Amino acid sequence: MANEPIDDIIAWSATQTSWRRDCLRRLAVANDLTETDECELLAMIKQAAGFTLASEPPAAVPLAKSHFSGGTHVPVVLKGIANVEGVNRLVNKASLNFCPKALTIVYGRNGSGKSGFVRILRTACRTRIENPALLKVLADVYGDGAAAQGADIMVDLGSGDVPIAWTPGMTAAPQLAQVAVFDSASAQLYVDGGNQIRYLPFGLALPHRLNAICLSFKTKLESEQSAAVGGKIALSAIAFPVTRDTTAQTFNHGLTKATTDSAIDAATAFDDDDGKRLDEIPNLLTAGVTTASDLGALLSWVNTIALECATATTDFSDEALDALAVLWTTAVTAREAAQLAAGALFDDDPLDGVGSPTWRVLWQAARDYSVTEAYPEQAFPVVATDAGEAACVLCQQPLQAGAVDRMQRFQAYMDDALDTAATNAETAVSDALAKIPTLPHFVGEDFAERLAQVRARDSGLADALARFQAAIAGRHVNAKARLHGSELAGIEPLVSPVEAITALSSKLGEEKSALVEASLVEGRQKLETEKAELEDLKILNTNKAKLTTRRDLMVTDAAYAKALTLVATTGITKRANELIDTHLTAAVTKRFDAERTNFDILHLKVGLARKSGQTKAEFEVDPQTKLTKVTSQILSEGEQRALALAGFLTEVALTDGSGPIVIDDPVSSLDRDRSARVADRIAEEAKGRQVVVFTHDIIFFNELCRAADGVDIEPVTIALFSDKDAAGKIDAAGMVWKGLNVAKRIGTIKQSFAPLPKLHTTSPADYEYALKNLYGRLRDTYERVVEEIIFSEIVRRGVDVIQTQMLRYVTLPDDLAIRFHDGMTRANTHSHDNPAADTVPVPKPDEFTVHLTELEQLVADFKTAKADAEAARPQMKPKK
After folding, report:
1. What's the pTM?
2. Coil, strand or helix: which one is 481?
3. Cα separations (Å) of 236 from 224, 734, 780?
4. Strand extents, DSSP E, 705-833
5. Contact status, residue 689 vs residue 661, Cβ threshold 8 Å
6. Tens digits of per-residue pLDDT, 833-846?
7. How far is Cα 158 from Cα 371, in angstroms, rounded to an integer?
8. Closest Cα partner for 87 from 35, 44, 46, 124?
9. Sequential DSSP letters for 49-92
10. Which has more confidence, 403 or 272?
11. What's the CA gap between 438 and 211, in Å, rounded?
């Protein structure tokens, strides 16, 4: 079994991107995309293209067979036109109401205003037109023509009447796209231009509608891209004074959408050191060997100062000064302890001061004298010798027992730990005093000159050195004072500039090397290269924002380029046309041939051929001759009109969602036979859709009413007329008498008779005049009974066709013939102007009612007789 169109579309959809599959799903369940639909689909496209969105789009839902409605649409119902202003000669606030179902026939003689209403519908609905200028609706050219034009087109979209405001040149309302209009202007295009199936059936519209959405999105994206990017990438370019192969320029030229912020940060990094270096290089390039020598002397001084800073930071720190004070305090405290011990040991001795510094010097001298001269190689004090008593080394007298005891006690004291500790502490103070650094460069005569040189390079460091010099000078004095037991107040904080000095030393060393190197050719080239790199880097750093802007524009531009590839129509048109050729072309040509058969023009050597390479389902008329490509040059006007109607009805029959059709003067130039065929075809179409027909042809009007009756449709008829003031006026009495069939004529007579019983009692003369007119209408109705009821319209007035096939429906029983004769005779009698001598009484109201009832019954009995006769001959196959 061959695939249905929707099966092929589902299979093709599965090969598409997710947003397209979702779009096909939305198109399958709705006539049009909403603004929300479009926003969500564009968001899906942009997300797929790499845009950063404020919010996530909904997940795509692909098209499935369950989403497909099978091409079933609830068509719009055209309810009427109201509040017409400024259109042709139409009366102000003119209006027309249409039958919401089946058939509405609007009749009016030439100039009655039909064209004014049709022109409004032409511009508002779906009309085949080659030149849009022909759709122009004029105001009253015989008036001032200044009135504003407008109207309300009333429609029912399923929830009640809704007015759609119309003004000339307005964008067509999408709700009215289902309404197709046929008139003389569009007829020419159907003949020479062919058919254009605008709303494809069987779901075949989906690829074409997707194609249209892609084109719409393409326009929107290109507009957004132009606004967001346009020529801004070129405007964000960085201009370098000299084009050269530097790292900065290479990075600038190589910038892409993939360049990261960190890469831009790294490529544009230019700090104060780079700026200083850029300032130094010109000096290096102009400096000589002498400058390098001077720089070497400064470097040597800086290195020495750095060492002195390190020494001073250590030796004059708050901790070091506190330690000196502790040395002095320790020595004093130790000596006081030793002296206190001596005092307790020598309280009974005759002389005071034993253990004092003076005494200690005395004792030390005595010991030195003893061990070097008096008693060499004997431990001091010597209190006895081999010869007996020893002599006192101080008084040269023999040592008596008391003196020996005293000498031994003195030595014991000197050997005691307290005295030793005191001595060691005093020695430590002396050593610390000797070790206080002098820092000759900080106190040198050239300090001020060198400081000025430092200041030229680093004023902050120069200030730090000056403060450091002042601080260490004060701390030097403070250190000595602390070792002597005193302390000076207000020492300055000691902040070492060693780190900055070390950095300056490193820099000076580089400068010295650079100066030496700059004196060489190769070195100068390197400096020139470095200078170029730094100059371009500085420019790049200054224009960092431009780099980021250009990169962002490239990202945006690339995203739009990707998005535009996602809405490219390549492949959609081809597949859409393949599906049309597979599933629609045969249906169109078959339907077109059927419509030509309806209008008896199948013999014409014309057909429909599929136009190739189109984005719409277009079929062109093929005149099948090499002499001309324009069909209108071959066919007569009547054949052209019949062919145009065949094309129009083919188009609306195969148009998905096609709603009402409006036809203006469809039988222009047609003979009566084809006019009747058109009436039959329109009546048949009205069984399935709303049809509005405008005509000035009373015979066609009657044919259309007859055809509607044949398919059990009761058409709504409207009669328009014009007067010297305006056109488009509606006859309150309804359709003109000639256009009424038997049933409507009887209804009209009843309506006109309703006020006569009262008139009979108030004015017999007026009653007689009015009643005579009604009998004339009754006579006309009897005549119409002959044509319509008795002879089943085999022969019709104004029509040159005799439908002999219908003779089988003619039945004329004698009793019915007699009743017809009697009724016609009465109608003649009371409608004619009888001679004054004749006594013909005027029928009373109840008598007229009886006569009218007799006519109604006669019509019913004729129909019954026809049915009985038909039932009696089943062997005859009915033809109609």
Report:
1. 0.55
2. helix
3. 19, 76, 91
4. 716-721, 729-730
5. yes
6. 766 555 678 899 99
7. 140
8. 124
9. HT---SSPPPPP----GGG--TT-----EEEEEEEEESSTTBPT
10. 272
11. 95
